[in-house]
Structure formats: structure tokens, C-alpha cells
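1st attempt posting a full record on here, be nice pls
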Amino acid sequence: MCSRVSTISPRLKAKQFSQLIADAAGCRRCVAMCDRSAVLSELNGPLTARIIFIGEAPGRKGADQTRVPFSGDQSGKNFDRFLASINLRREDIFITSAALCNPRSESGANRKPSKTELKNCSEFLQSTFALIDPAIVITLGSVALEAIRTIQPHSLILKESAAKIHDWNGRLLVPIYHPSPQVLASHRREREQLADYQVVARALRSLKAGYNVNAA
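the predicted structure (as C-alpha cells):
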């Protein structure tokens, strides 16, 4: 069944998360990001969340400034709107990213994290995932979908697998598109993204009904 019972006590989980936050804050593995700080703290969401959203990386004008994933920029506003469309609250979810620091080009604009940067950050993603132990996983964009392969291999491609409920690693996985203005303008329009979040809502209903992932 998809209902999961954590084997870690709340106190120990909080202690381990505090250490993970400290480790991420002190990380200097990526030369291009040594002057940035990882967006990982209690502001990412409750450790008891049953659903985790995984994005690409903090935005220059968003999470890198606010320290809250998907906030402070247009991507964050879009994300909040999509969550509200299915009555999902931020306090009920945990949000993290494939890369915890903001990757920038020489001009200062946001860029995709490199493969090396994603590899450097994969340990933090794996450790966060293990602590949260979510029943439902939502990846936002192709980078996030690719990143979770370091947790458990899969052969999913966003274009083919988006807005479908998959059985992955004993959990429900729903890959959807990133809520950035660029994606909304060119790859996945507003109406389509709103429909995608209805699939997220269906996954949540399945969880509450005791959905058997092995029958997915």
C-alpha cells in the first residue's frame, strides 16, 4: 500500500535534517556556486509531508532571495496558482530542488544546472528524500525527473510521461512541467498545466483511499 510509516522518530528526523541543512550550507563542491547558499531549511516544508515537489534549482529573483522554494518570482506565483487550483497548501507539502544553489550564466541570468552540479547535489537530494520518505513524488520539469534517477533508476521521459501516475520506487510519481513563464509560453500552456495538477489531485485521492502502487 502507499501509506508509509516512518521508522525514524520525529526528534531524530529533525536532528538529521538540521545536520543536512548545515552540510548543504557548508558545501563548496561547485566552483561556480561558491558565493551562493543552498536553499534548504525548515522553510522547504514539514518533514512529515506525504508529498514532495522537486524543482530544478532556486531562481535568481526567487528562492535565492527569499530562501523559500518557488517564491518571489513569476514561477513561484504560477506554482501557487496551480496549487490553489487543487486546494493544496504549501504547509502540506515539502519542496526541494535537484540543485540547491542558484546556477547563473556569466551575464547573471538563470541557467540550467550542469551535469556535474547535479551530481554534486545528488547526495543532498537523496538524503532529503530519505528523511521525508514521501508517498507521492511530483517532479517539475525534465531536470528534476532526470535527477531522481540517482534515487531509483527509471526510463521516463517528460514529454511522454507527463501528467500520468507512475509506480516508482514503491511510490506514486507524477512528472509535470515546470511552472516558469518560459515553459508556459512555449511548452505547456496554462490550461494544460491546470489539467496536470488535476492528476496530482487524483494521486492524492488515491493515497487517501489506500492506493496499491503495485497495481498501478
